[in-house]
Design a protein that fits this description.
Largest sheet: none
Oligomer: single chain
Number of strands: 0
């Protein structure tokens, strides 16, 4: 190994590790919509979102307390509010409301647009400008995912689309701000403190929603709730923010091009939804676009 290899090798390991962490986040997120549908078997939409946030906050608070993590610097709190509003409250609430009338296949449209929207938010917020090759590959990937998921859901607009497009915007803002903060503190602390900020609201919302919405506990409902709380909200965002801090917000965001296709696989296996024969073709096209974005300058 040459001196130059020695100098670049640690950076290569960091990039590979960051890519792996971000990919684990994508896998965790891909289960969110099917788990939400399961959770809605037992809980109303408002109850599910409030209890999900409260459970995730208690998990995060336990870690922060046991490890005696000091409060974040004053300058980080505004960013944590954006993370809390975007990924802890906004995205879960809006997508849960949408899934009352939309299938998971149709809801995957919002995830198909999320990578491109996050990259655009990141370019504005951080001032980093990815290369033209990156943007072309990102646009191509978004086009493939949108075309496939719209075809899969019949191509018709649904009443939940307003919720889905709102979820797209708030989530992209939360991802961008969380990725920026993860350069200053560990990713799990970013989502941990964002969850703690929402805990009073989540507890009050849980008490109110559970009093007005019926609860019918089933195995699917409980499993769905536990996954969206511990898997999607805490673990998924923990590895996601760590990955973004390592490889950059723009590159990490493009790994989410694979998320709608993974969600469709889970939808077939867990919810008995039908999968289009075009899925393998779309999967290959998306993987090519992801590979180009990961190699392009960002």
């Amino acid at each position: 190994m040459t001196a130059q290899d020695s100098a670049t090798h640690p950076n290569s390991i960091a990039v590979s590790s960051g890519t792996l962490l971000a990919a684990l986040g994508v896998i965790a997120f891909s289960l969110t919509f099917p788990s939400t549908v399961w959770g809605l078997e037992s809980f109303g939409p408002w109850s599910l979102v409030a209890v999900r946030s409260a459970l995730a906050a208690l998990i995060a608070g336990g870690f922060l307390l046991v490890m005696r993590i000091p409060l974040p610097d004053r300058g980080h709190w505004a960013g944590l509010v954006v993370v809390a509003g975007g990924v802890v409250v906004g995205f879960p609430l809006l997508t849960t409301l949408a899934l009352r009338t939309s299938t998971t296949s149709h809801a995957a449209v919002v995830v198909g647009l999320l990578p491109l929207t996050t990259a655009a938010f990141a370019a504005v917020r951080t001032g980093r400008r990815p290369s033209r090759t990156f943007w072309l590959a990102a646009l191509a990937g978004a086009a493939v995912v949108i075309a496939f998921t719209v075809q899969q859901s019949g191509g018709a607009l649904q009443t939940g689309d307003v919720y889905l497009f709102g979820a797209l915007l708030v989530c992209a803002a939360g991802y961008t701000e969380g990725g920026r903060l993860a350069r200053h503190m560990p990713g799990w602390q970013v989502i941990g403190w964002a969850l703690i900020l929402c805990l009073p609201l989540a507890l009050a919302g849980s008490a109110l929603a559970l009093a007005f919405e019926p609860v019918r506990l089933t195995a699917h409902g409980v499993i769905g709730l536990l996954w969206v709380a511990a898997g999607s909200t805490f673990f998924g965002l923990y590895v996601w923010y760590r990955g973004m801090a390592s490889i950059g917000i723009a590159k990490a965001s493009q790994l989410q091009l694979a998320q709608p296709l993974l969600t469709l696989v889970w939808s077939v296996s867990l919810l008995d939804e039908r999968l289009s024969p075009a899925a393998p073709v779309a999967a290959v096209a998306v993987l090519v676009c992801i590979a180009v974005t990961q190699r392009a300058r960002s």
